[in-house]
Design brief:
The protein has 152 residues and is α+β, with helices and mostly antiparallel strands. The chain is built from three helices and six strands. A hairpin with a 2-residue loop joins strand 4 and strand 5.
Length: 152
């Protein structure tokens, strides 16, 4: 059985903490972006070629809710799932799980809403989500709900 999430493993470094010693909030958003990038590299490399052409993946909205603090050298599993797949937009959820000696604790949860766009910067318009991306995301859909609203 495979997991229903794409995972990015991360060890927190000193540079990601503030003067008090806990992780500075902006890093959670940075890790969302890193997880998304690694997903594209590992699971949807054809989409990266489209990004180098004229596909643009605009982040429309991002948020993160915090449940517990983490500090330097904590081991994290950032788990990305597809929560919604529409015609031109999609939404991911991210669970931030601290892993210590096999014990997992959910420390934060985030979301990202993405729009697919094409065209030059002066005339960018919404674009259908590439089939290669939709196909690569299928295993990570939450509870089968994510694919509703997408044309067959």
């Amino acid at each position: 059985m495979t997991d229903d999430y794409f995972e990015y493993r991360h060890t927190v470094g000193f540079e990601e903490t503030n003067l008090v010693g806990n992780v500075y909030y902006v890093n959670y958003l940075r890790w969302q972006g890193r997880c998304r990038e690694l997903f594209l590299q590992q699971k949807a490399p054809a989409v990266l070629a489209e990004v180098q052409d004229d596909l643009k993946l605009f982040t429309l909205k991002v948020d993160c809710e915090f449940f517990a603090e983490i500090t330097a050298f904590d081991e994290l599993s950032i788990r990305m799932r597809l929560s919604e797949l529409g015609q031109t937009q999609l939404e991911f959820t991210f669970d931030y799980v601290k892993v210590t000696g096999g014990v997992e604790v959910l420390i934060a949860r985030g979301r990202q809403r993405i729009a697919c766009m094409r065209g030059p910067n002066t005339n960018t318009v919404p674009s259908l989500i590439p089939e290669a991306l939709a196909h690569a995301l299928e295993p990570y859909a939450t509870h089968g709900r994510a694919l509703t609203g997408r044309a067959a």
